[in-house]
Amino acid sequence: xxxxxxxxxxxxxxSGGIHKAYCHSNAVRVRFAPSPTGxxxxxxxxxALYNYFFAKSQKxxxxxxxxxxxxxxxxxxxxxxxxxxLKWVGIxxxxxxxxxxxxxxxxxxxxxxxxEKEVQTLxxxxxxxxxxxxxxxxxxxxxxxxxxxxxxxxxxxxRSLTNEQVEEKLKSNSKYCIRFKLxxxxxxxxxxxxxxxxxxxxxxxxxxxxxxxDGFPTYHFANVVDDHHMKISHVLRGxxxxxxxxxxxxxxxxxxxxxxKFAHLPLLLNLxxxxxxxxxxxxxxxxxxxxxxxxxxxxxxxxNFGGGFHDHQRTATLHLYSMKDLIEKFxxxxxxxxxxxxxxxxxxxxxxxxxxRVMSSGTEEEVKGFDRDVEEAYNEExxxxxxxxxxxxxxxxxxxxx
Length: 402
Ligand code: GLU
Description:
CATH topology of the domain at 281-383 and 391-400: Glutamyl-tRNA Synthetase, domain 2
CATH class of the domain at 281-383 and 391-400: Mainly Alpha
Bound molecules: glutamic acid
Helix content: 40-55%
CATH architecture of the domain at 281-383 and 391-400: Orthogonal Bundle
Strand content: 5-15%
Low-confidence stretches: 1-25
Shape: elongated
Radius of gyration: 24 Å
Distance between the termini: 44 Å
Strand order of the largest sheet: 3-4-7
CATH superfamily of the domain at 281-383 and 391-400: Glutamyl-trna Synthetase, Domain 2
Largest sheet: 3 strands, antiparallel
Number of strands: 13
Order of helices and strands: HEHEHHEHHEEEHEHEHEEHHEHHEEHHHH
Mean pLDDT: 86
């Protein structure tokens, strides 16, 4: 039986089959687009992995783009650590700021000229306008709305400024930002995971800022401009961004561009039902790496909850796969929409299962890598005459004795 989502993919000219090209038309190009505001956490890692599996299963490209437009939130070293974490789990981007590529730079703060040029297009075609409202006026509007039980949103006052009024304000050096004019209608689009989404942004939000008064673009604008210019075919990201996608589609329209296809990934939750966040240091990939979890155990653990693979055995028993196998088995149409609770203590079971996998069916390279790890970590024991050999490791390896 063909499920609803598979039917949707077929209608979009896409196939859910693992060996077929995903779309008839252009090459698959996906991006992982983190903001360098902290350590890579499990949710971010899962997004990166699904993007990677999808790209590689479709013989496409995986692009790493750093979204550093909010200069106040940048954490030094975040990009270097992120690249280290990705490499550790086996993700090597095809294009990134350090690897290079045809569509770079891949760091948004180096693309300011492009945003400046593109916002001019929207100003010229009447889809955007300069807004001179002060912070205190915006605060007042917000407070009044809350007091009256209304949705707090910008009242779009500066939409109606005449050209002369704008000129006058510019002459007096008034500070301004640029806002995008939302149209008042319900927009429908297809989410490759959640199906049809219909939403009227205008009813819930004021015109969004697209260029801030410091000249930097906001996420919403830079994201659209970059996905278009980097020829991104599919956007796979956390479901928390689904609410913004309608706004993004309106921006694509205003430019006359075709939006990419969107697939939103269900939330990862703590056991108490709260959202996993970057602020949970113990859930960072760096902390997990330092706690001696095998990279492939983590990869299997974090992609074990939300479906997405041609394999039912995987959830029934703790059967781990190599990156290569996961790429082969990945099928976007099999992702499910339910948010999933993550129990970190299960990672240890995945670690044991990974050791079993490497010893029973690991590639020569994996076995060698594992031997190297063990030698490094247990140097003294390994060099003794009666040292345990690899077959005895499940009994002696402290990684496995939790
Ligand atoms: N910079 C956003 C983040 O860190 C990216 C969202 C997206 O993928 O569009 O989550």
